[in-house]
């Protein structure tokens, strides 16, 4: 079917055609970004944390007694926690995967060099790797003589005295692509630190882009603030009992301390992703609602045009146009409108994505999403116009006389 006559017909209905093009373009831009956000969040739901999730319980403790040095208090607490039946190991840490508290460093390979990656820092007492259930794929755990205090009182100054670091496999590959990272040095701050081990997986406390979700460093730095998180490893069936006994043990040692967030890691993960699950549901509802409204707009406009063009349709039938010709006419007309909207919508989708990247840490929109969005809108447009087009094709040639 020749396109110029269809385009000429649309120019006689500029306003309605432009409104539908604007609706399609906005739908394309929004739905493409919404679909990307949904897929991004669904992917995050399935990320492995790298720790023994079903064996861990944790408790936040805030010590109000300023007379006892924090490191001494932590040693006393850990001794009591390890004595609980069913506890295989325990450690004091400053953060955990999906725990929101994040201290991150820009990692360079030479002093004052360009940042190669921004990695979250995990710090803890001896036994942290075993307690969390981290899998060393290269190298070793920290030696007792390598531990230093974080020195929280002096803005985490311990980072410049720490002699060793363990990194995740993802970070090692980012810093030293195609090389063995073991034994090499990195600069998390002003002084070099040697990589002594590589763990398989470990998620950050806060998830950002999927590509850097496992950019993590572990330092042999002892938490020395009054607030600390105790992590205990036990069997899955003992978690609730161990959690209660651990809380009681800490309060017996110091009844004036504040004990909060006593929970299993399973609960921690569920809490972290609860907002994601709610957001996924809202985004799906918004996308489907927008597509439904767009389909109604296409169908409504097509129905209006069928009513307005009954005489011209009858004339075309009278001069030899078949029902298939009329059907194809309306489908082609809709295809032109939707295609124009899709082209503008794809441009608008990237503009919207850039705004989301600037303000909400949204990753860059892959080109696949506008392509899929265009196909979806083309199909939606054809389905929406099919009913009115069938009614137009059913108009008999005599309608030209009746309308006259």
Quick summary of this structure?
It contains eleven helices and 13 strands. The chain is of the alpha+beta class and 404 residues long. It is elongated and about 100 Å long.
Please characterize this protein's 3D structure.
The chain is α+β, with helices and mostly antiparallel strands and 404 residues long. The protein contains eleven helices and 13 strands. The protein has helices at 3-11, 14-45, 70-82, 128-132, 169-175, 239-253, 265-308, 310-318, 323-360, 368-393, 399-403, and strands at residues 56-62, 89-93, 104-107, 117-123, 136-139, 148-149, 164-168, 185-186, 193-199, 216-219, 221-222, 227-233, 258-264. The strands form three sheets. Strands 3, 4, 5, 7, 8, 9 and 10 form a seven-stranded mixed β-sheet that branches. α1 crosses α9 (323-360), α2 (14-45) packs antiparallel against α7 (265-308) and α7 (265-308) runs parallel beside α10 (368-393). The longest helix has 44 residues, at 265-308. The two termini are 27 Å apart. 36% of the residues are buried. The model has no long low-confidence stretch (mean pLDDT 87).
Helical percent range? 40-55%
Mean pLDDT across every amino acid position: 87
Strand content: 15-25%
- Morphology call: elongated
- CA(first)-CA(last) distance: 27 Å
- The overall strand count is 13
Helix count equals 11
Oligomer, anyone?
Answer: single chain
Indicate the radius of gyration in whole angstroms: 31 Å
What distinguishing features does this structure have?
404 residues, alpha+beta, 4-stranded antiparallel sheet, 11 helices
């Amino acid at each position: 079917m020749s396109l110029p006559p269809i385009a000429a017909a649309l120019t006689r209905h500029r306003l309605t055609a432009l409104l539908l093009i604007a609706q399609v373009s906005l739908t394309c831009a929004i739905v493409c970004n919404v679909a990307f956000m949904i897929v991004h969040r669904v992917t995050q739901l399935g990320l492995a944390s790298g720790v023994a999730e079903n064996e861990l319980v944790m408790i936040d403790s805030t010590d109000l007694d300023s007379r006892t040095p924090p490191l001494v208090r932590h040693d006393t607490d850990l001794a009591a926690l390890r004595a609980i039946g069913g506890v295989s190991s325990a450690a004091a840490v400053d953060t955990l995967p999906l725990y929101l508290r994040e201290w991150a460093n820009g990692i360079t390979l030479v002093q004052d060099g360009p940042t190669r990656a921004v990695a979250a820092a995990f710090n803890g007492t001896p036994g942290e790797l075993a307690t969390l259930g981290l899998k060393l794929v290269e190298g070793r755990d920290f030696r007792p003589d390598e531990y230093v205090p974080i020195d929280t009182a002096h803005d985490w100054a311990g980072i410049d005295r720490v002699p060793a670091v363990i990194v995740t496999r993802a970070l090692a590959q980012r810093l030293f692509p195609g090389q063995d990272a073991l034994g090499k040095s990195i600069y998390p701050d002003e002084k070099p630190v040697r990589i002594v081990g590589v763990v398989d997986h470990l998620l950050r406390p806060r998830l950002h882009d999927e590509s850097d979700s496992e950019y993590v460093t572990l330092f042999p730095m002892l938490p020395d603030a009054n607030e600390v998180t105790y992590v205990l490893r036990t069997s899955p069936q003992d978690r609730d009992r161990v959690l209660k006994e651990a809380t009681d043990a800490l309060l017996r040692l110091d009844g004036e301390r504040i004990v909060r967030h006593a929970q299993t890691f399973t609960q921690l993960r569920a809490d972290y992703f609860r907002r994601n699950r709610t957001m996924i549901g809202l985004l799906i509802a918004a996308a489907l609602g927008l597509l439904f409204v767009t389909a109604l707009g296409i169908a409504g406009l097509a129905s209006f045009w069928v009513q307005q063009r009954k005489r011209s349709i009858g004339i075309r039938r009278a001069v030899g146009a078949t029902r298939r010709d009329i059907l194809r006419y309306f489908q082609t007309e809709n295809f032109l409108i939707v295609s124009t909207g899709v082209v503008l919508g794809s441009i608008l989708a990237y503009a919207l994505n850039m705004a989301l990247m600037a303000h909400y840490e949204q990753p860059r929109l892959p080109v696949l999403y506008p392509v899929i969005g265009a196909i979806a809108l083309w199909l939606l447009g054809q389905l929406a116009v099919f009913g009115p087009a069938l009614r137009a094709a059913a108009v008999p040639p005599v309608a030209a006389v009746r309308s006259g």
